[in-house]
Design the sequence.
């Protein structure tokens, strides 16, 4: 049994940690959301549920094993909304959806659910009490949405030509360093403006870690045919919230989403170990094939210095139990005249 040789690591000089953020551009075109797979509103990549509280959007017909979940859509309003009334279609469910999302993302204000606001003040003035909710899949957002990268293009034209006029909502003022954002129990969030300079009123907010966009119904005010159908006729966005089901309002919103784009974020935490190889150690190999007939294979002359080739680094705990193994891309020559430092990184 070969004898193992261990070289201790000094935690103060040989170990350090780093954090790296990787970003991917995520484009979601309106053609996937509505129109590519089947005929609106019965698209094959849209899944509605018997409870009728939200619908799911996939990048392929959802019954296919190749389908990936992109996001969920729902609508809701607070009890203080001018729309809220017992006669409204699915009134209780719409209130419940608003309260559920608001409480998860913003918590309570006293004993009441804190309402959304189209600003960063959290003072419960000028609240955003009637909204669409877009909850993005963790498959796409990863750890979070990158600040100052989110945009959603909405169609404001007539029902038959919704994108003849568009409005782009974007987190124009948010910065990666956290400026122009606020923080609640749901994580960091920023205001969605309809211009790149971030002026005027906000039309919603985006929560970065949660991956949820809250879009105010006011973004569609002034459109007489926000939704349309052979049976129901033309409805404004307010009328849609009042008379249509949650799925019906989500269908109308899908018809008016031209594009969604953002950068996701993957956070990689790393521990880096600087494994030092002194000149007088690790000059021999414990590999049984290192010797042949009691002679070192890599030596031509008996008086030559020993030579070894490092291919693997093992990280052990204090009890000399192997915890991790690192492989070098190619063997590293080691002789008594060399001292080496091998950098080993573990990601998690």
Sequence:
């Amino acid at each position: 049994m070969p004898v193992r040789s261990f070289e201790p690591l000094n935690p103060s000089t040989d170990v350090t940690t780093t954090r790296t953020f990787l970003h991917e551009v995520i484009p979601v075109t309106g053609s996937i959301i509505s129109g590519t797979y089947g005929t609106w509103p019965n698209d094959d990549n849209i899944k509605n549920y018997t409870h009728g509280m939200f619908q799911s959007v996939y990048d392929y017909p959802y019954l296919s094993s190749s389908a990936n979940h992109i996001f969920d859509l729902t609508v809701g309003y607070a009890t203080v909304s001018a729309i809220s009334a017992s006669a409204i279609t699915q009134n209780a469910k719409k209130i419940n959806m608003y309260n559920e999302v608001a409480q998860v993302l913003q918590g309570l204000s006293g004993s009441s659910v804190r309402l959304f606001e189209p600003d960063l003040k959290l003072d419960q003035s000028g609240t955003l009490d009637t909204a669409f909710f877009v909850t993005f899949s963790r498959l796409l957002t990863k750890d979070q949405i990158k600040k100052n990268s989110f945009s959603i293009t909405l169609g404001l034209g007539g029902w038959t030509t919704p994108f003849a006029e568009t409005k782009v909502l974007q987190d124009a003022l948010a910065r990666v360093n956290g400026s122009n954002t606020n923080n609640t129990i749901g994580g960091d969030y920023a205001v969605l403006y309809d211009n790149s300079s971030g002026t005027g009123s906000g039309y919603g907010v985006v929560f970065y870690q949660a991956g949820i966009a809250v879009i105010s119904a006011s973004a569609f005010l002034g459109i007489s045919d926000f939704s349309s159908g052979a049976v129901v006729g033309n409805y404004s966005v307010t009328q849609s919230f009042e008379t249509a089901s949650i799925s019906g309002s989500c269908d109308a919103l899908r018809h008016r989403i031209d594009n969604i784009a953002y950068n996701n974020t993957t956070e990689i935490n790393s521990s880096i170990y600087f494994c030092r190889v002194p000149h007088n150690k690790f000059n021999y190999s414990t590999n049984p094939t290192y010797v042949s007939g009691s002679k070192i294979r890599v030596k031509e002359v008996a008086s030559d210095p020993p030579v070894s080739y490092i291919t693997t680094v093992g990280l052990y705990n204090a009890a000399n139990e192997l915890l991790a193994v690192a492989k070098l891309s190619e063997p590293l020559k080691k002789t008594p005249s060399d001292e080496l430092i091998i950098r080993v990184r573990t990601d998690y």
Remarks:
- Residues 278-347 form one domain.
